[in-house]
Structure formats: C-alpha cells, structure tokens
Amino acid sequence: PRVFALETLEVTADPVGQASLHRNPAFVTVLDRSDFDGRAVSVSDVLASATGVQVKRLGGLGAFSTVSIRGASAEQVEIYLDGIPLHSTLGGGVNLGNLPLAQVAQVEVYRGAAAGGNGMGGTVHIRTLRGKGGVRWGGSGSWGAFDTRGLNAMVAREHGAHEFLVLADYTASDSDFLFLDDNGTEYNPDDDALANRQNSDFVAASLLGKWAYRSRGGWRVKGQENLYWKHLGIPGISNNQSRQARLNTFRSLTEFTVEAPELWEALFFRQRIFWTHQSEAFQDPQGEIGIGRQDNVYRTRSLGFDSRLQSVWPGGHVISVEGEVRRDTFLPRERIRNQANFFESSRWTLEGRTALDWTAPGDWGVVSTSANISFRRDRVAEENPYLLSPLVPVTTTSGRLVTLRAGLRLDLTPWAWFKANVGKSHRAPTFYELFGDRGGVVGNTSLEAEKGVVWDAGIRLEGETGSLEAAIFEHRYSQLIQFVQISQGVSRSSNIGKARVRGMEWTAQGRVFDWLSLSGNYTFQRALDRSRFLHRQGKQLPNRPAHEAQANGALQLGDAAVFYEYTFEDGNFLDRANLRPIPARHIHNTGIRWTGFAHFRFTVEAKNLLNNQVADLWGYPLPGRSYFLTVQKPF
Q1: Which helix (H) or strand (E) holds 18?
Q2: pTM for this predicted structure
Q3: From CA 332, how far away is CA 327, in angstroms rounded?
Q4: Which of 10-24, 33-47, 324-338, 433-447 comes out lowest in average pLDDT?
C-alpha cells in the first residue's frame, strides 16, 4: 500500500437550525459561536450586539447586568439555558454576568410575540456546546487590562453510540479601572479626580459535563450537569466605595432527557426532568452597602418535568402539545440576626401549551398559532409580621394565566418573505412583590399579573451573499407592578403602571467580496411611561435610548483578519422622572486575528478606543479603554 497526501478540504455551512429559525414567522436574531469565538467578550457583550436589545451593566466584566428587548424590563424577558428557565421566582431579572461564554454554542434572541417562550418583551435561548463526533479538543487562554485573565479547556469524544463532552472554564479580573470620582458633588467639577475602582474584583469557574446515547432505533437519551462558582466584590456607589462587601454564588443545573425522533411514522416524543439550585451569600460585615451589618444566604431551587408530543401531517402541517409541572422554592437564612429579611416561599406551576404550524397550499407561506395556559399557587411558609394588617390579608395566592400568539410568513418570492406576529402575554408577580420583606417593603397578594399586547410586521430578504430585514413593532403593557411609598420608609407593590413602546428595526449583513464582510443594525424606539403618576406620564422609560446602531466589518488578509466594531447609543435617562440624563455614547472596538501553526489562533483586541466612560446606573461607572490578548485552539 502507498499513502498519498491530499490537500486539506474545508466544508463550511450554517449551524444546524439557523436557516430554519429565520424562516419562522417570528423575528429572531441568531448569534453563532463563530461570531465571538476566541474573543475577550462576555454574554452581555454578545447580547448587546443583537437588534433591539439593550443591556444594562453595573460595572466591568463579571458585574451584574440585565437585558431589555424592545423596551421591556429585565423581568419581562425570559432566558433559558438549554431549555431550562433561569428567571427566578424571587424576581430581579437574570444576571448575565453569571453566564460563562465559554460554554455557549449559539444564542437565539426572539423579539416580540415570538414562539420561543412566554416572555412579554422577548425570549433568549442560550445553547451550550455539543460533541461533534470522533475525538475533539480545544481551549483558550487570555489576558488583558485590569489583570483580566481567562482559561478554558474542552474535550469531546464519540465512543460507539455514546457521546461525551467536558468543559472547564476559569475567569478572573481585578477590575480596578480608573473612573472620574466627583467626590459626591456632582455639580462641582473643581474637586473631581481620577480614582481606581475598589473591591470590584471577581473569580469565577464553571464545569460542564454532557453525555448522550443514541440507540439503533433512533431513541436518544442524554444528560448534563452544569456547575458554576463565583466570588465577587461589590464596589459601592460612586465615591462611596466599599472595601469588604462580597457576593458568593453557586449554581447547579441538572437535566435528563429521553427523545424518540419517530415514535410512530410521524409522531415525535420528548420527556425531560430538570433540577436547578442556586445559592447566593451576601456578606457586608461593616454595613457599607446596605443598612447595618449583613450576612445572608439566599437559596432558590426549581424541580420540573416537561413532556412534548409533535406530529407532522401530510402537507407539512405540524401539531405539538406540551405540558410542564414545576415547583420553585426560595429559602433565605440570616447568619447574624434571628430572622432573614425575606420569607421562605414556594410556587407550584402547571402549564399546558398547544401549537399548530399550518403550511399553506402551494408553499406560499406558513401560519403559526399557539395557546399557553398556566396555573400557579404561591405560598409564604413563615409567619408574616404584616398578617394583622389589611395590607396583606392572606399568605397564599393562586392564579391562571393565558398566553395567545399568532404569526404569519408570506413567501413573496423565493428570496423575500413578509412576516407578521401578534400576541397577548403576561408576567406573574414575583415572591418579593407578593410577600415583601421584613423591612421596608410590604407585600401585596392581591396583585394581578402584568399584561402585554404586542405586534410586529416586516420583511426579510435573503440571498446567497447576505440578508436584509426591516420591521415595525408596538408593545403595550398594562397592570405594571411598581412599588409605592405608603408611609415613611415603607413601600408596597401595586398594579398602577402602563407603558407603550413603538419603533422600527433594520438589520443587514453580507459578504461584499470574498475578503470583506459587513453587518449592522439600527433600532428606533419610543418607550413611554403611561402610569398614573402625573410626573411620569409621557416620560421616556429609563435606559431605553431612542436611537441605537451598530456596524461591524471584517477584512480577511490571508491567514489574518482585521475586524472593527462601532456602537452608538443615543442619550437617555437613569430615572423615570427624566431628571438624570445619560449622554450619548460612541464605542469603537478593533482587533486583529491570525491563525498560525497547528491551527492555533491569536487575537489582539482594543476596546473603547476613545475611552468613553459612562454609566448605566448612577454611581456605577463602566470601564474605559482596554486591551486583550487571546490564544486559542478552536474546538
């Protein structure tokens, strides 16, 4: 026998499912790993690049950050990790700073009345990596400004009918960037001085393990365990910086799934059970952040089971039926005082959903409809000190919520589609809103769920070298839950709010030449407060800029690529009364990537070239100019 060395053959294709997602009636942005692989970025950075998305951050890498889609609040956006809900029944929105990017294979951002979930303003699905057959391995190491360092490694192997994947990730940063300290006198610039951010460091680590088995009959059994640890400093507001306040987080996500791709000739089946556990320990031994010394531990747990049946009929019609039962618990503990600030609470949820995707005769389009009904029962398990007050008549509440959606995709030509969606959705009150705490917040078990009626319509053009999408949208929210001061130092949650968001979106991407690719998006929105408060009516909702734009370009020069990113965010406000403005920001990022020996990839990045330092929340500045180096062996 003789051996002949052939030239390397590379096969490139879109990630599985990406093209079909765009053909859904819903408006969706798909962010593939190739868009951010080997970069010194976070999940917050990736989501902020999506059309219609605003991210609010309280500092640099690893700091608390939340997402808003089309003017919705963070609690009105649902976020799932491999189909497991991350939004907590306690409330507060999902912290994007606790999601390691090294695990992410793809992010799907559904805007408006999309079929991706029950989020009033939108839904985000984060998919983690999977094995690709054979034996594969990869990893990366990075270092940059503020002593930011990261290291991750992953390996996947296919052994017969079994697939295995293990991924470990470590990230840390001192995050001691310079910021302008106004010395507590905002309107007196004479005493302003540059200072280093203190107690803003963090250390985080994660471990992901996956296993899958496929039988000869096509049945698939899979399981995963996802562990995450984080030790974070809390720096305090502006010049009043803390020294010792810390927040320690541990999260565990466990999933076991059984799938039958073809139970009968056209019936598909999936059963899944999942368990999540998150523990947060807040330590403020000197009372630098809150009122008095605190050492609290908050545990949230969720156990759920869901089942799905899907049938494909002749002509391409698809009917699916899903059911889910879930129990969420919140267990607080106070290490210094006899009682914790919050109450031990639990929620049972039973959901049922049916959907029909009807393919029109002649393949001129698709009509998609769905109905979701959920029953919940909330209970506070402790004695409520406000029980004798008429403000909190009961400690157990229940409710029924219905979500309806309909979407249309009309094929105008093989490369032009018209899309339209309408939906009515909801958000159930959180434990904090229902039961309050033992301090300055009185709960309200008579709260109704927030309601939203949303619609959007637009057109998508898609060709071999690029795509163009344009859409208009309107979101109307009612029964918004807000905290109202009822006496000195005491507030109570009430259904008094209304909001309306109108806007338009443009998205374009394409390859101009073989060596040049361009992409960008623009969002205009008018997010107005329609609550009963006269001083808020007609005001712009905070952190919802009217104009937002992004442009990206990549120039391929042999084994090297130069990339550039520009982000514009119009001026907006920190508060609902529109008294504290945020100036407009222009952010420029650039870098160069070179693929060298053994397919190792080297990336040098420069972020925020103009050193534009602003804040998404008063007293919490964002980092300025920074530089990073990453060495990667692609997976």
Answers
A1: helix 18-22
A2: 0.91
A3: 17
A4: 10-24
